[in-house]
Amino acid sequence: MSDQTLLNIKNLSTSFKIEGEFYEAISQINLQVKRDQILAIVGESGCGKSTLATTVMGLHDPAITKSTGQVVFEGQDLLKMNEVQYNKIRGAKIGMIFQDPLSALNPLKKIKDQITEVMDYHTQLTEKQKSERALELLQDVGIDNPQRTARQFPHELSGGMRQRVIIAIAIACKPDLLIADEPTTALDVTIQAQILDLIRKIQQENHSGVILITHDLGVVAQTADEVAVMYAGQIVEQGTVQQIFENPLHPYTRSLLRSVPQADSENDELYVIAGNVPSLQQMPKDGDRFAPRIPWVPSSAHEKHPTMHQLSAGHQVRCTCYQNFNFPVAPKGVRQ
Amino acid sequence: MWKVILRRVLIMIPEIILLSILVFLLAKMMPGDPFTGSINPRAGTAEIHHLMRINGLYDPWYQQYWNWIVHLFHGNLGQSYQYHESVANLIGQRAENTLWLSLFTMVLTYLIALPMGMYAGRHEGKLPDTIIRIYTYVTYCIPFFVILVVGLWIFGYVLNWFPTTGSISATASGFSGTILSRFYHMLLPGLLGALFSTVNIVQYLRSEVIDAKRSDYVKTARAKGVPEKAIYRHHIFRNSLLPIAAFGGYSITGLLNGSIFTESIFSYPGMGLLFVNSISYRDYTVITALVLLFGILNLLGTLLSDIILGIVDPRIRIK
After folding, report:
1. Burial A48-76 (b: 16+ CB within 10 A, else e)
2. 20 to 30 Å CA-CA from A329: which of A182, A243, B45, B311?
């Protein structure tokens, strides 16, 4: 492990208790996040991206959640920490940006108080210094009139503004690791680009590592350095942005890329991945979890217990079926 | 904000006029009259007709209504047929008793309900929560007057812990003696009333706390590293109490309704008891005055709720 590795996730599985039984939402995740790097985690809804993020943040109710493996952050295993120890890390060394800026802020507290709250627990600053820092942060995240915004309540701000405030909260204590869980999903396209630029800028200034969770491949191509593609709770392919976009191997990655509208192919119908991500209770015990959605690939092509295969430096793919994978012959009207 | 309050008060004027007409008509539509049975039993129907006539009870309703309103504006609510006393005096004496009992019940209600609701919400699914839920469901299922009668029977008659009638004992003397006696008389009806009225607040608060617990802004607070205790104090409880605070104004309505049961069963000399007695005597002047008063208090309660909400919830800033 190099010095630059901030977060090292080893064999991480998280299960939720549903009607008395535990079901795995993410299984056997191995990931590293380095300083000065943006790692994107991509996948459909329900594939476990957010579960991974909230597990790292320790935001699950321990009564109904079970996590195994290791989440080593700056040399300490987060999974072994108690609440008091965890609270020293959360907000201070790991900041999180949430998906829905409309609901992630307390509707009854002024913006300033929501930003200074995180400093209350992690810094020794005086009230005055905290207020000044809050204004500074609002300025940093691109809010034009910080004094005014600081006095306002969340409902008085637009979605983009609120997301900026949430980012300000997440970076208030200059965390080493920033987790952004679909930070742009609830925003319109023009604001999306601004928010991504902001995250990138902050990451470069603080030399932090970023986990960017998204289902938007455009966002990945634009922002990330490394990419991990998740399907049904597992990582199916992992590599640098170039490797994933130029040489996608896993059928799921290829299907995802094919499902993105292209500006230069207006006549094509979009590729649709048939079926759904299996629910936790219906998750197959073994075999390739993506196999049911590519039924034309013979079952012999899949491994019985798919493992990650190292193909080139940093590029890994799960299962052997990628070797036999081709898109089916298109029905009439669809150009291959 | 003041403009809005003024506007709301102005809107209340037509509401009160409409209410007064309705109240007046309903009182008039009741069968019976205030004189049969209350005068010399040997008097014939002729005498009753005579009394009805000189009291203006055979006039057309709009004329009676108009006379009533004119008197009302002169501060004259009329004479009670039953007590031969001015209605204003009559209500004035009882209003104080009802006010004390209602205030006492309200304070007890919130003292019981707030900790219960918060505890149940925070420790959702645990044994104490289950017990609290059973308590709320059972109490909710029992009619209020049954609770009162059974309570009165057990604690008043069988155990003999509390007085069973009145608002003050005849032998009470001195300043502190009077207060203590008043308090002693309010204790049982107040407790039973509170036992009943906590139910709604407990259930409401419990579900508010559970909602808040799972909200995104609480997740944000956790991600900030805020300790659990502080999360409850600064985020969950505060936000859950908001609708309860707004409820406060409306609870006036509930207390007035409750006073009708409580006071009749405990023979507590307040407005509720007066109301029930007046209805059985067809004491029109008292009934109309009381219903109008209850109606106005209800409207004020609603206004109060809106004002409270406007103050505590920044999203509902009244401009």
Report:
1. bbbbbbbbbbbbbeeeebebebbbbbeee
2. A243
* Stretch among A231-235, A311-315, B51-55, B113-117 having the lowest mean pLDDT: B51-55
Asked if A45 and A29 touch (Cβ cutoff 8 Å), the reply is no
pLDDT band at B148 (very low <50, low <70, confident <90, very high): confident
Under 8 Å between Cβ of A172 and A178: no
Q: Is there a contact between B224 and A121 if contact means CB atoms under 8 Å apart? A: yes
Q: CATH number of the domain that B149 lies in? A: 1.10.3720.10
Single out the residue of B196, B171, B195 nearest to residue B184, CA to CA.
B171
Q: Which residue has the tokens 């004390």?
A: B100
Which of B220, B225, B228 is the closest to A105 by Cβ?
B220
Binary contact (A104, B219; C-beta < 8 A): yes
Residues in A touching B220 (Cβ below 8 Å): 96, 98, 104-106, 166, 169
Output A328 or B147, whichever has higher pLDDT: B147
Helix or strand or coil: residue B94?
A: helix
Q: In total, how many domains does chain B have?
A: 1
pLDDT tens digits for A43-55? 888 888 889 999 9
Give residue limits of the domains in chain A.
5-224, 251-336
* Tens digit of each residue's pLDDT (9 = 90 or more) over B244-295: 887 777 787 778 778 888 888 888 888 888 888 888 877 777 888 888 888 8
Structural domain contains residue B273: yes
What is the C-alpha separation between B272 and B163, in angstroms, rounded?
A: 19
Q: Which residues contact B34 (CB under 8 A, 6 or more apart)?
A: B81, B82, B281, B282, B283, B284
In sequence order, the 6+-apart residues with CB closer than 8 A to the CB of A68 are A11, A12, A13, A79
CA distance A174 to A203: 10
Q: What is the CATH number of domain A5-224?
A: 3.40.50.300
**Closest residue in chain A to residue B212, using alpha carbons only:** A106
Show the beta-strand stretches assigned E in A145-204. 177-181
Domain residues for B176?
88-283
Tell me if B224 is assigned to some domain.
yes
Contact present, B314 and A155 (Cβ < 8 Å): yes
Q: How much is the ipTM here? A: 0.84
What is the biggest distance separating any 2 CA atoms in chain B, rounded to whole angstroms? 86
Question: Searching chain B, which residue's CA lies closest to the CA of residue A116?
Answer: B224
Nearest-CB residue to B217 (from A106, A121, A153): A106
Q: What is the pLDDT of residues A111-123, one digit of tens each?
A: 999 999 999 999 9
> CA A213, A214, A217, A221 torsion: positive or negative?
negative
Q: What 8-state DSSP symbol labels residue A290?
A: T
pLDDT of residue B317: 64
